[in-house]
Design goal:
Blueprint: E1 4-7, E2 13-16, H1 29-41, H2 43-56, H3 61-68, H4 72-83, H5 87-91, H6 106-116, H7 121-132, H8 138-148
Antiparallel strand pairs: 1-2
Helix pairs in contact: 1-2, 2-4, 6-7
Length: 154
């Protein structure tokens, strides 16, 4: 790993032989970071993020291939997208967000809550079931209302 590019403490790009002051090879941390990211965003997206960041910092595709196992053709594709400033295409369909079925009825439910002023989650549960036909547990309804910032019983 000769002449790889890393950042120093001030954020400046510097060349080194792959070993920082603590004696840790910079490429050895890739597996650890990939594992942490995998828990949050999934393995494929984690690998894509790591590969793109390594390319941004000037690590050669062959070195990335050796450490991550990502094909050279894939790394070339990432680099091509980076050069065209089209990385959004790479990540567009990868970011997952579970959307509650209640979201599409959010305005209707909010209007009913304002109109009827329910005091308990059970009353809101009944309102949701009457207006939308959706059945959710009290805890799920509480979490959904908290995410929306809705207060009850006031």
């Amino acid at each position: 790993m000769k002449n790889s590019i890393v950042l120093d403490k001030k954020g400046k790009r510097v060349y080194n032989s792959g070993i920082n002051k603590e004696g840790i090879t910079t490429m050895n941390n890739i597996e650890y970071v990939t594992n942490v990211l995998t828990k949050v965003v999934g393995k494929r997206l984690a690998q894509q993020i790591i590969c793109v960041l390594l390319l941004v910092f000037g690590i050669k595709p062959i070195e990335i291939n050796k450490k991550t196992g990502v094909a050279l053709s894939t790394l070339r594709k990432y680099k091509k997208l980076m050069n065209r400033e089209q990385l959004e295409e790479l990540f567009a369909d990868r970011i997952r967000r579970n959307v509650s079925e209640l979201e599409q009825y959010g305005d209707i439910i909010d209007a009913e809550i304002l109109a009827k002023q329910p005091k308990t989650l059970r009353e809101i549960q009944n309102i949701i079931k009457e207006r939308t036909g959706i059945t959710r547990s009290l805890s799920r309804i509480g979490v959904w209302l908290k995410k929306r910032g809705t207060k009850i019983g006031q």
